[in-house]
Amino acid sequence: MASVASVTPAARSASAATTTTSRPSLGKGIRLAVFYLLLLVILLVFVTPYLFSAFAAFKTLPEILAQSPARPPTNPTWDNFKTIFTQYDFGRYLLNTLIVTVILTAGQVTFSMMGAYAFARMEFPGRDGLFWMYLATLMVPNVVTMVPLYVMFAHSGLLNTYWAIFLPYVLGVPASVFLMRQYFMTIPKEVMEAARLDGCSESRILWRIVVPISRPIIITATLLAVVFGWNNFLWPLIVTNSNALQVLPVATANLNSNFNSQWNLVLAGSLVALIPMVILFAIFQKYIVRSISLTGINR
Amino acid sequence: MNAHRPRRSSLRWFSPRPARTLVRVAIAAIALTLLSGCAEWGFGGSGSANGTVTLVYSLWDTHEQVGYQQSINVFEKMHPDIKVDIEEIPYGSYQQKVTAEFITGQAPDLFWVNTPWLGSFVKNGMLTNLTPLIQASHINMAQYYPQLVALHSVGPKIYGLPKDWDTIALYYNKAYFNKLHLAIPANLSWNANGTGSFVTFLKAATTDKSGHNALSPQFNPNQVATYALGVSNDPQSGWGNYTAQAGGKIIPYPYAPVASLTTPQVNVGMSFLADTLTNAHVIVPGALSGPNANGNNLEQMFSQGQVAMWENGDWNTLAVKTSVTFPVGVATLPIGPVGRVSVFNGLIDGLNSHTKYPKQAWELEQWLGSPQSQAILGSGGYVWPAIRSLDPLFLKYWAKNGIDMSAFLTEAHGQVVNFPVSPGVGDALTEVVNDLGPAWLGTEPTHQALKTAQTDANYILRTS
Amino acid sequence: MSVAAATTVIGKHRTTAVTSNPDRRRRVRTAFLFLTPSLIGVVLFLVIPVIFVMVLSLAQWNLLTPIKWVGFSNYANIFRFDGFGHSLLVTAYYVLLNIPVQTVLALGLALLLNSKRTGSALIRVICVLPFLATPVAMGVVWNWFFSPTGMINQFLAHLGITGPAWLSDQATAMPVIAFANIWQYAGYNMLFFLAGLQAIPLSLYEAASIDGGTKIQQFRRVTLPLLRPALMFVLVTGVIGSFQVFDTVYVMTAGGPGNATKVANLNIYNTAFAGFRIGEASAMSVVLFLIILVVAIAQFTYFNRRTTYEIA
What we know:
Helices cover about 45% and strands about 15% of the residues of chain B.
């Protein structure tokens, strides 16, 4: 029985590109130093934007303007966060984003998974043709559907509601379907056939058999959906115009245009959007790192 | 054995049936949304609760909002069953926001309407025709400036009660003119060929860093200390007055689908500024006045003494008062080939054609168009009231505060030309100003820039 | 092979399956049931809008007044009056700034970090952190970093250089936007190269070095060709995404200074949702779609002709 584990990156030598035969230790020492120098630079480049904005969010505006961004706050203050949560409704926006993201993710992953299973392991007329249609729509960039979808939503009276924000994505998207279908295709047919002969309904096969062994890909799809839903900006921007319905990206952009150079407020607002994703990352980082690569290569 | 598989323990908290959890979460969340979608979480907006109706009224000027709040406080006392929520929307996105809100059915019940987008709002059906309501309430329209009534009417229909007006005049630096021992004559004029007492006066009022004025042969145009006049590339507060003084029109008639920028009269007016006065070095060069010569820098230059006379509308009075340290006077515009003409404009409160509370919204509209309300706004120095008899109130306020505003009033009682009204004219004029930039910067002949402006304006007016 | 499997195989060749007909019909019904939600999603939110936008591109409409049908004139007018040609050029400039640098960096990171030395794993993880950042929120952070008195200029001042007003200078505005995107996705793309690198069997390198190949030759002859699938994926998705850049531009420059960063997507957004010119915006969308399609197909063709998937 082919191993599902074969889909994960094989345990090849991780140092394939950098193994060396024995060298004089001076050369090796220099290489090591350069290597760690580069690592340090990379660390700085990727971490300092987060770090410095976090510092600034706890400073007052005069402090931000006067001090170097690299200096941690001497008297950290929660004032900026207090202001944006009490005066500028950020608690509401956080809640909006949570609601929309959860619904979007739950729906998208569930329905994409069902579709993926149907394409991967079920037989029905027109299967291949329909799958090609899904594939074709993968090529459709968001910018093309933006205007007509807006018009469709306007005429259905759905504009400016939570529905508008998640509806285009909640019923499943081709990318997610494709992702999970490829994974399901590596599950041997015999597994399903055996279950069918035992009298299992397709539903039971999917939920009781396939899903538990597809945890990696489902987590991947979930993570990708969460990140997408949380960070989505353009679509919520055009379909909502009440202040009360803003999601965090929209609220951050509006805060920025209203309070342009009040860095303390504006960076605090950004942090509210960034921190949850950082936390998510910290919890799931093994999965994120390992599983994003599952999405691409073996097309 | 795959070394990359995570240990079980790190996932113990994760449900063995993630999909089922997913579905349960989805159902709960959808239920939550259905509930919340209905109630909108109690977000403020138009609404009614125990007999009180709350109207939403939107505007863009923070300072005027203070005056309007005072007026609305009186209104709410008179109508205990109506509450008014003022919503400020920044000017730059005002038209777009109100239109988008109208599309989603969330537009305010009453909202300020400025002439650049009046035509579009009318065409889009966003404004209520007030004529039958006016007749039923026997409102005397003769109390308002007739030009304002005409501006906001389409035939027998009128879309708002006029509530304020503005004209364009010249704020001038009294200290500077005292220093030069120069008094501003009452009736300066200019001719189509670029001569006249106005030009001579401007030359006398322009000084270079060594103290020579532009009439002197030692005048150094590269070392100008103070320009006599600051005019912007703007159809209302800038060249629009001069093209009107030359007898030209931006659009041939209200609601026209074309522009009329290539007529000889418009050319005369525009060229007077962009060529004659610029070449005489008596007005601020386009490059200094702001991007595309839009005049953004002129206010600061005026307060720093680099401009002797700043041409702009009366809505700038408070800013001028607070930012300058010298006494300020106001002079009338010069007299051009067809006379002294100023651009005339005024706002109305548009009544949302789809408001949920037409009765209450009309009460508010009536109030804001009434003498009582306009007296509050006039006497507080916020705006010139559209009711002619109340103008002295505004005059008195500013006289007490050190600025004589009668020049604006003189022009309002003289020849005025309404700001152009047509669907899309706001966007069209934005393009026109962009296209005229090179003429002001001297990189393109004026008539050429006007031709490009005409083509672009025609496209937008035709397709709006 | 198990009996069950054998039965199924035989079953395929009969006109009626071994399992009964109603059972099969039930399974087909279930299949369509499973498919329905995503099918509705695809048809309603992808297929129909694509057709609809092409129809709308032939109209002049602002959603509030009656539609006017104007044939193909929008396609000419968007270039003549709406500056769409300029937007496309600006967008292409962005793609050229962004993709090559990002791809090379991602590959470089993968090569560097494909190591067992301590710290590599941690840094690999750190590289991916930016991927999750909300582009809009990061745009605000970059506004701060690149403001005239912001961190970048402060740092340059220490070196004695006066930094430009990054986002107000026509020459530097677009490169800064490209930088923001590179920062965000270099690590993410690195992962694909990493997976590709790790899939190359050691034996190939051993063979190459036995044949006397230097490290560089090994890289060119072994690594690069076998990375082609990863490279293709990164390039195709990167280019498609870059042509649609919006979030960072909206927050950082709003298309300015002047029109220097008025990318296509921003132009479409302004035309449709600030100007309410649905027809022109739709025509712009269709043109952009065609361009993206052509570029993607060109990339596919180029790579398909030259890619090795199997290593025997």
